[in-house]
Structure formats: structure tokens, C-alpha cells
Amino acid sequence: MRALIQRVSAASVAVEGAVIGEIDQGLLILICAMEGDDAAKGAALAAKISKLRIFKDEAGKMNRSLVDIGGAALIVSQFTLAADTSRGNRPGFSTAAKPDEGRTLYESFAADVAALGITVATGAFGADMAVSLTNDGPVTIWMDV
Predict the structure, then answer these.
(1) What positions carry a catalytic annotation?
(2) Residues 125, 101 contacting (CB under 8 angstroms)
């Protein structure tokens, strides 16, 4: 699984102009299931993200996790994270999981994050979404498992 994680002070996702998911302080997690991924990889990624110490402590150092601060996660599926730009000018997405498998792994990942005691909001798998965020820092991290 591949994720792009952004520390946010607020984030939301809308479909056809209607907000379907929003959070205050926490993480915007753009997630892509890759070909060959399984639920165990998603669970491992969820656990790692929940413990990632990228929030400031009292001294202003990045030393606290999402769990430590009681933050929330907005999880949005984004197959374009699988983009292969090594040839030509048009990205290829053949390394992304097939849509049915991708949906299952996306939903499983969101459930894994919620099972860790984190408040979760989600986008709509496969929909044309508008994502808004206030990136805090900015802090943006790329993760693969």
C-alpha cells in the first residue's frame, strides 16, 4: 500500500459540492492499494501511521503521534499515487490494484485506522472528489509498505 500523509489543522472532502467527510487537527491520508497488496499490508500501514511522531510536543519538537494528540484521520482513496512516469508524458497506473480489490483494501485500511481508536472520516471510493486542507507545517510524508 502507498500513502501520502499530510499533517493538517483541518481537511475536508466533497463530492458534487457536498462535504462527505471532514476533520479538524490530524492527518489527511491519501491511500492507494497497489497490485499484490493484501489486508495485512494495510493493517501494518495503519499501525505505522498511527504511531508516526510528527505532531509537536510542548517544546515544539515533532515528538507526538496522532494517537497521542487525539487527532482524526481523513482517508481518501487516490489511485494516481500508483503513477508510473518513467516513460513518455502520460502516467501509467497499471501497478494500482484493480478497482474491486482497491475498494476492499481501502475500506479495510479505514477500518484498521478506526480500530486503533482514531476518529476516521472518508471520501467516496472512485468518485470525483474535491479535497480541501490546511497543511500544518507543512508536513507531508510518503510511505510504502
Answers:
(1) 78-80
(2) no
Q: Which helix (H) or strand (E) holds 138?
A: strand 129-144
124-141 tens-digit pLDDT: 999 999 999 999 999 999
Q: Which residues are 13's β-sheet partners?
A: 21, 131
Domain 2-144 has CATH 3.40.630.30: no
What pLDDT does 126 receive? 94
Residues 6+ apart with CB under 8 A from 79: 32, 93, 96, 102
pLDDT recorded at residue 13? 98
C-alpha distances out from residue 75 to 4, 97, 145, Å: 10, 17, 17
